[in-house]
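Below is just one:
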Amino acid sequence: MTTPAAPSALVRIRRAVDSWLADQRIGREAGWEIVAACHEACANAAEHAYPPSLSGSIAIEGRLENGRVVMSVHDRGRWRPSRGRNRGRGFTLMEHFMDKVDIERSEDGTTIRMERTVDRGEGA
C-alpha cells in the first residue's frame, strides 16, 4: 500500500497491516508486535523523511516467505534529524519486536526491511 507520509495515515496503515496479518493466519501476539514495528517505521518516515513544507508518501509491503513475515517501509525523502529531545525509541522497538531490521539509505530515499519468524494459526 502507498499512503501519504502524514501522522493521520498511521491508523489506516495499522488497520491494513493488522488485516493482512490476520488473512495470513498470524497469531494475535506476533501480529500486534509486527503491527507496532511497522507503525514505528512509518511514523519515522512521516516525521523524518520530508521537510514540513513538502508532502511525500510511504510505501508499505508485506510478504510471507518460508514462515517469515517480511515488512518493508519505503519513503522517497531524505533522512533528517529528530525534532525534539528524548526521542529515538522507534528503532529500539522495531528491533525488539522483529528478528531482523535493516535500514538502507540512498538517493532514492530510505527503506526499512524487517523480518520475523512466525507460527501461523496460533491465537488467530
